[in-house]
Amino acid sequence: MDESIRPEAAQAVDLLDRHDRACEDKGYRRVLKKQNEKWRYVNTESKVLSLREMVSRELGLNVSVSHPRLWYLRITDSSAPMKNFGTPPVPRPDSQGRLPDDEDAARLKQLMYELDILSRPT
């Protein structure tokens, strides 16, 4: 280990080395593959890539560090739209103050007119 890096960076380098050695194990690769099949915000691969960027920055390389979520989105490259979880595709006709038809609109205008007449001081 280089003595010029901070202890946190040395731990990160050690962690990356252990991850690289563990990737040689078939069982570990199987676990990583199984993890990638699940829908998550981040996974181990995205965390490792982000950690590599942090270590590179600590070593003096001019790199920008991306959040693991950004790496996950780059890796998966899911350009399909996300699943809609319960949001209705079209608002109901009576939602957000919309009137269903012209008859109701005329009735509402009449009520507003009558309220306006009643609220005037005499």
Topology readout:
Blueprint: H1 7-22, H2 26-37, H3 44-58, H4 68-76, H5 102-119
Region (Disordered): 82-101
Describe it:
By secondary structure, this protein is an all-alpha fold. The protein has a domain of about 70 residues. About 55% of the residues lie in helices and about 0% in strands. It is built from 5 helices and no strands. Helix 1 crosses helix 3 and helix 3 crosses helix 4. The longest helix is centred in the C-terminal third of the chain and has 18 residues. The radius of gyration is 30 Å and the shape is elongated. The termini are far apart. The mean pLDDT is about 75.
Which tags fit this structure?
about 120 residues; about 55% helix; 5 helices; mainly alpha; elongated
Task: Please mark out the parts with pLDDT under 50 across 5 or more consecutive residues, or reply none.
Answer: none
Q: β content, as a range?
A: under 5%
Q: Give the overall shape, derived from the CA principal axes.
A: elongated
Helix amount, in percent? 55-70%
Tell me how many strands there are.
0
The rounded Rg comes to 30 Å
Major sheet summary line: none
Terminal CA distance reads 91 Å
Structural class: mainly alpha
> What is the N-to-C order of secondary-structure elements (H for helix, E for strand)?
HHHHH
Let me know the average pLDDT: 75
Tally of individual helices: 5
Region (Disordered): 82-101
